[in-house]
Design a protein that fits this description.
single chain; 150 residues; alpha+beta; 7 helices
Length: 150
């Protein structure tokens, strides 16, 4: 009698109708793990819609990297290899690949940075600068200017 792994049991359970979305999610995750580590870090989400694999990337540099002809050929070969290993997966239906920039990821980062900058300045910049060293004196004057402009 062979011991069944947790991965095997989850896959068996995922065959039930109400677990289909979970099974598709596992396929996406498994396919994403086929990419090299750098490409995995660039991708926020991937999914299949209307026989098109849509890959959402974090920024425009990732878009340029993954939209390159050689990388697209590599993705197509990954799809081919994955469908050979799992012929019943959704990847067997994929005809096209689209790589898009994830605007949600970009907007989340911008709001986080804006929120991070918002703070209450408790000083008004009125202090005496007693330093005789000209370098330290100038640094404190720059600090005074920053405080008054905040």
């Amino acid at each position: 009698m062979k011991i069944k792994t947790s991965h095997y049991i989850i896959n068996e359970l995922a065959d039930f109708k109400h677990y289909k979305p979970l099974k598709i999610f596992f396929q996406y995750k498994e396919f994403l793990n086929l990419f090299n580590h750098n490409h995995q870090q660039m991708i926020t989400k991937l999914f299949i819609k209307n026989n098109t694999l849509i890959i959402l990337v974090k920024h425009h540099i990732a878009y340029m990297e993954l939209n390159h002809d050689n990388t697209k050929k590599m993705i197509k070969s990954l799809i081919k290899n994955y469908t050979l290993a799992r012929p019943m997966s959704n990847f067997a239906k994929v005809k096209n690949i689209k790589i898009l920039s994830d605007q949600n990821f970009i907007s989340k980062n911008k709001t986080f940075n804006e929120h991070k900058k918002a703070h209450l300045e408790l000083s008004n910049g009125n202090f005496k600068n007693h330093f005789e060293n000209p370098i330290l004196y100038n640094k404190f004057e720059e600090l005074r200017k920053l405080i008054k402009n905040a």
